[in-house]
From TrEMBL:
<dbReference type="GO" id="GO:0016787">
    <property type="term" value="F:hydrolase activity"/>
</dbReference>
<keyword id="KW-0378">Hydrolase</keyword>
<dbReference type="InterPro" id="IPR029058">
    <property type="entry name" value="AB_hydrolase_fold"/>
</dbReference>
<protein>
    <submittedName>
        <fullName>Esterase</fullName>
    </submittedName>
</protein>
<dbReference type="InterPro" id="IPR050565">
    <property type="entry name" value="LYPA1-2/EST-like"/>
</dbReference>
<feature type="domain" description="Phospholipase/carboxylesterase/thioesterase">
    <location>
        <begin position="27"/>
        <end position="208"/>
    </location>
</feature>
<dbReference type="Pfam" id="PF02230">
    <property type="entry name" value="Abhydrolase_2"/>
</dbReference>
<dbReference type="InterPro" id="IPR003140">
    <property type="entry name" value="PLipase/COase/thioEstase"/>
</dbReference>
<comment type="similarity">
    <text>Belongs to the AB hydrolase superfamily. AB hydrolase 2 family.</text>
</comment>
Length: 219
């Protein structure tokens, strides 16, 4: 099979093919790489399969999943292609590793957050939950993409109050969009820019760990 993306995987200690583990797919921001969010998620490595997915388009010293016409305006054809390929990768990795299909999570920052939220809408209950950091949902995804229900999905959205790339108002709008579809959305803001603070990291890790164990985290 043609593997859609290059990636790095961290398997839990004592990993056994016969068991089933929650999995976290990590989608980096524009110009970064697959190792970026793996470091952020490292405290989960004893419980989760961690998979960092590298964008397939080089950008400077890093990578991206799609290109932009301008800030906040993805090139539609490239964006569509990335969504299809990411869905295919999630299915590929689920078959290759001892993944529990009922506990598949997607974590994304910036460009990765945009894709994580899009995957939530296109995959629906095929994903257990998402963590979206400093992102937004493109209008064409809201208006033109086919959507699946996210009613039972666990959703954590956060945004920096002083984000100079995507103003915090976008974070509120994004959270409200999902809150209209799901009454269990967790939305947090932090006194930061376009970045992940220590508090943000701790809260998202707790959210993922507790949710994977069946203890829902409330806002």
């Amino acid at each position: 099979m043609d593997i859609p993306y290059e990636y790095s995987v961290v398997l839990p200690d004592g990993y056994k093919e016969g068991e089933r583990y929650p999995v976290l797919f990590a989608l980096h921001g524009k110009g970064s790489n697959e190792q970026d969010l793996l470091g952020l998620a490292a405290p989960l490595k004893s419980k989760f399969i961690l998979i960092g997915i590298r964008g397939d388009l080089p950008l400077g010293q890093g990578y991206q999943y799609y290109e932009l016409r301008s800030l906040g305006k993805p090139i539609r054809e490239m964006f569509d292609r990335a969504v299809v390929r990411l869905e295919a990768f999630i299915e590929y990795a689920t078959e290759k590793y001892a993944v529990d299909p009922a506990r598949r999570y997607v974590l994304g920052f910036s460009q990765g957050a945009i894709l994580a939220m899009t995957l939530a809408l296109t995959m629906g209950d095929r994903i257990k939950g998402i963590v979206a950091l400093n992102g937004y949902i493109p209008d064409f995804v809201k208006k033109e993409y086919p959507h699946r229900s996210v009613m039972n999905m666990s959703i954590f959205i956060s945004h920096g109050e002083f984000d100079p790339v995507f103003p915090v108002l976008i974070g509120y709008e994004t959270a409200n969009y999902f809150k209209n579809l799901n009454d269990r959305v967790v939305f947090k803001t932090y006194p930061s820019g376009h970045e992940v603070t220590g508090s943000n990291r701790q809260e998202l890790l707790s959210f993922l760990l507790e949710d994977s164990l069946g203890t829902h985290v409330k806002e």
